[in-house]
Amino acid sequence: MSLYDLLGISETGSLLEIKQAYKQLARKYHPDVSPPVLVEEHTQRFIQVQEAYETLSDPRRRALYDHHVASGLHLAFAARRNGRFDEEMEDRGEWKDRWQSQLSELKRRSVQKENADGMSWGARMRRERNGV
């Protein structure tokens, strides 16, 4: 069963159709509104519906999913687990590059904001707080 079948939409479904199908199924299978005898079954279905929505509502993840389905691969897509899908989705080292870029920018700002005394912003604030 594909994620499209799970949501009850066609493979060419728009984002609006995906959202509408998700909302309808989420209301139907939410564990808080399930009959007591069906709570476990509805909880599992709710998780599947949520994972389908998270995959199909993100254009990059949807394209990757469609590519794998077209190639005949039926992967277990799980939004809550790190697995093969997430590794392929993330550009390798993207998070590290972003972190290093942010750190470099902070260091650059710190150097630029030094005043004539050669003090950083933090040092100036400590001096003001201590009344010196």
Automatic annotation (TrEMBL):
One Pfam family of this chain: DnaJ
SMART domains associated with the record: DnaJ (SM00271)
GO cellular component: chloroplast
Name of the protein: J domain-containing protein
Top-level taxon: Eukaryota
The organism's taxonomic lineage, starting at the top: Eukaryota, Viridiplantae, Streptophyta, Embryophyta, Tracheophyta
Region of interest (Disordered), ranges: 109-132
Domain annotation J: ranges: 2-69
